[in-house]
Specification:
C2H2-type domain-containing protein; 16 strands; zinc ion binding; transcription regulation; elongated; DNA-binding; DNA-binding transcription factor activity, RNA polymerase II-specific; alpha+beta
Length: about 290
């Protein structure tokens, strides 16, 4: 005679016993693992914790594999895929992003970023900062940072006619203590490598494209190749970060200023660097052709 030890009951037949197991609240069976739990909570915890199950406890629904479960979480719930946590609602998820050091989150914009530097760049953009850095040549342009101003001048976008070569020449004349420049890579005077302009001709055609004779990359048109050669790509990295554990090098002043503004290496805390940059950028209006 079949019996149920958990319930202390006997049954006249196996079908009667099976019906008892199926209907009794004291029997909660995982068919896949063939385990009988005394409570529904125990069975549910088993489904949640076992690697054999892909189960959403919030919807009481099973999924074919882990990828399907992940898709369900992202589509139906307030879910953090990095931490693999489901929150009650969007408010809880956003608060998690705001408080967690693992996430780079802009609360006002409700946006996640891949890195701290990307978040800092966003926070330093015109979305969050006013354009209060004005061009010293009074061309009417204004920027959110000094690095953006320097890039404006280096690109030749200013009506004053200032360009990258002129900026580099000015820095060579001003930074006599080499606070931001590397004397080993700079030659005083207008004939330094920073002033060299590379120009390609039709002879750069190699049969399939216009080839850069310095890096051997190919371009579809001669104009694009010459834009590449006019960029700082092949200029010496004359600018250097003097951070105690950094020494990063840059081929443009705007690159160095952006690096300092990012705070990555903490060099902006040093008074000598602050004073040099403040004085240098404050006198940009003295640049002449």
């Amino acid at each position: 005679m079949p019996s149920c030890d958990r319930c202390g009951r006997f049954f006249n037949s196996w079908p009667a016993y099976d019906q008892h197991i199926a209907n009794s609240p004291r029997h909660n069976i995982c068919d896949q693992c063939d385990i009988d739990f005394p409570t529904w909570v125990g069975l549910k915890e088993h489904w949640v914790q076992s690697p054999n199950h892909n189960y959403c406890q919030y919807c009481n629904e099973h999924f074919y594999d882990e990828e399907d479960l992940e898709d369900h979480f992202q589509n139906a719930h307030a879910y953090c895929p990095t931490c693999r946590r489901v929150f009650k609602d969007g408010v809880g998820l956003r608060e998690h992003y705001r408080q967690s050091e693992q996430h780079h989150y802009c609360a006002p914009c409700d946006r996640l970023f891949n890195s701290a530097s990307n978040l800092n760049s966003h926070l330093n953009s015109s979305v969050h900062r006013p354009k209060d850095v004005k061009c010293p040549f009074k061309c009417g342009a204004a920027f959110v940072s000094r690095s953006a101003l320097v890039l404006h001048l280096e690109n030749g976008a200013c009506t004053s006619g200032v360009n990258r070569n002129l900026v580099n020449r000015y820095v060579r004349q001003y930074d006599t203590s080499n606070v931001i420049t590397d004397p080993a890579r700079m030659i005083a005077g207008s004939g330094s490598s920073g002033d060299i302009t590379y120009i390609a001709s039709e002879r750069s055609w190699n049969g399939s494209g216009y080839e850069c004779y310095l890096c051997h990359n190919t371009y579809q048109t001669l104009a694009v190749l010459n834009r590449h050669l006019a960029s700082p790509r092949h200029q010496d990295r004359i600018y250097i970060c003097r951070g105690p554990s950094c020494s990063a090098r840059f081929n443009t002043l705007s690159g160095l200023v952006q690096h300092i503004e990012s705070g990555r290496c903490g060099v902006a805390r040093f008074k000598t660097v602050q004073n040099a940059m403040d004085s240098l950028l404050g006198q940009m209006g003295r640049l002449t052709m």
